[in-house]
Amino acid sequence: MSEKPKGLTLYFYRNAKGWDCTNGGISARFDECTLIGIVNHTRARITGQPLVAQPLPEGSRVFEPTDKRPAVYLVMGKHSPNDRFIVPADQKTWQPDGRWWMCGGNYADSSDSRFDELLPGGFAVRVHDRHEG
Fold this sequence. Notes:
The protein is of the alpha+beta class.
């Protein structure tokens, strides 16, 4: 993705007491993010194809990332088939940031029905935006 991608707006949900365990991650610094693609480990394992980030379906490419709504990816099936979490994207290349990310305790979700189509079940998704090092 060389041109600025489009995606869906997600909202961050944080600890009500204001505790930040993200070590300054995007979910601590922003209220919203833009989901621009999916990294599907399960599909890569089943098909034997290389693991690559895929853009969202055409109908879900609506909003551009902004300075106040950074780009993120949905990672699926990394540790188990039902594993799902959000990771930051590199804001210049629009690819998943290659660093090791871990959950900082926050979640992301949207009331947009197109997000529910991507992830049936209606559950908020963990945000892996804590990086040490």
